[in-house]
Automatic annotation (TrEMBL):
This is Sugar kinase. Pfam families: PfkB. SUPFAM superfamilies: Ribokinase-like. It comes from Halogeometricum pallidum JCM 14848. Belongs to the carbohydrate kinase PfkB family. Keywords: ATP-binding, Kinase, Nucleotide-binding, Transferase.
């Protein structure tokens, strides 16, 4: 377990991200996995994608994760280091394997997943993986829902959210629904608990399909805000995204409830894997930099749009120059 110190020469990261890092296997063709003959290995995991996305956007976070001490784990750690992330909070597990996810691609570059994640390293993340000193220096802490499916990672995630709020950081949560992973705990109850611990929620309609949120996206966002978060982002695929705020949100206009939206960008998608994580990285980077809610939505949508034009999740994440060039071409 990491010691309770910050070891980055005093230049503490403003953002902390915690959660799973795994291997995505991308198919050589569209359609059912039954018909796929070969796959390409890519690094993945929603929080890992967010962490690398932030690093590409010049907001390198502290990233807490746990991977196996196997060849896949070696590959993932090397990838994270190449992306500029520190290894201080990356734990190696010699008693568990690295999680694997096989991706199926649809005709519109939509994707489905088949996971091999039974007691793998990321399910064994432990309480205290992020030191108090790191949280004390952080402005923002982001976690996802996949680590809520198994203990001890489940309690480690909730504990981190509680300690981050106590430390004064903004806490964001992405439910990232993966139905086949939920067999030990109830998805709805687990997400409701996380909503109550989060200041900011980022979700998709698909994430909320098994919950009791229905109707217009703006109304859904307002309903989620009633569970505790003061700001809710919904990504809507080709229709862009929206943000709903309560009067408690630091981004609410004049301390009032508000809904802000952006229609997104038209692109020819190659692979939508990781687009939501790219959006999250864009939102966090923009808001930590002091951008307005409208500016942040526009920027985050651009980051996500660029990501869909290349294969893979982590490997497709753009830097600021690529995002700037894309926005200039769109304008």
């Amino acid at each position: 377990m990491p010691e309770d110190t910050v070891t980055n020469d005093g230049d503490a990261p403003r953002v902390v991200v915690a959660g799973e890092t795994l291997i995505d296997f991308l198919p050589d063709r569209e359609g059912s996995l039954r018909d796929v003959e070969s796959f390409t290995r890519r690094p993945g995991g929603a929080p890992a994608n967010v962490a690398v996305g932030l690093s590409h956007l010049d907001e390198t976070p502290a990233f807490s994760t746990r991977v196996s001490d196997d060849p896949f784990g070696d590959f993932l750690v090397e990838t994270l280091v190449e992306a500029g992330l520190d290894t201080e909070l990356i734990e190696r597990d010699a008693e568990a394997k690295t999680s694997l996810a096989f991706v199926a691609l649809g005709e519109e570059a939509d994707r489905g997943f088949s996971f091999y994640r039974d007691r793998t390293a990321d399910t064994r993340m432990e309480v205290g993986g992020v030191p108090d000193a790191t949280l004390a220096a952080a402005e923002w802490v982001h976690v996802g829902g996949v680590t809520l499916t198994d203990e001890p990672a489940r309690e480690a995630t909730y504990d981190l959210m509680r300690r981050a709020r106590d430390a004064g950081a903004t806490v964001s949560f992405d439910p990232n629904a993966r139905p086949e992973l939920w067999d030990e705990f109830d998805y709805g109850d687990s997400v409701a608990t996380a909503f109550g611990l989060a200041d900011v929620v980022k979700a998709t309609p698909e994430d909320l399909a098994e919950l009791d949120y229905e109707g217009d996206p703006a109304d859904i966002a307002r309903d989620i805000a009633e569970e505790g978060p003061h700001t809710v982002f919904l990504t809507l695929g080709g229709e862009g995204s929206l943000a709903a705020t309560t009067p408690a949100s630091p981004w609410a206009g004049e301390g009032e409830e508000s809904v802000v939206s952006h229609g997104g960008y038209e692109v020819d998608p190659v692979d939508t894997t990781g687009a939501g994580d790219a959006f999250t990285a864009g939102i966090v980077a923009a808001l930590v930099d002091g951008e307005t809610l409208s500016e942040s939505l526009e920027f985050a949508n651009a980051v996500a749009a660029v990501t869909t034009t290349a294969a893979g999740a982590m490997t497709a994440l753009p830097d600021r120059e690529a995002v700037r060039a894309f926005r200039e071409s769109e304008s």
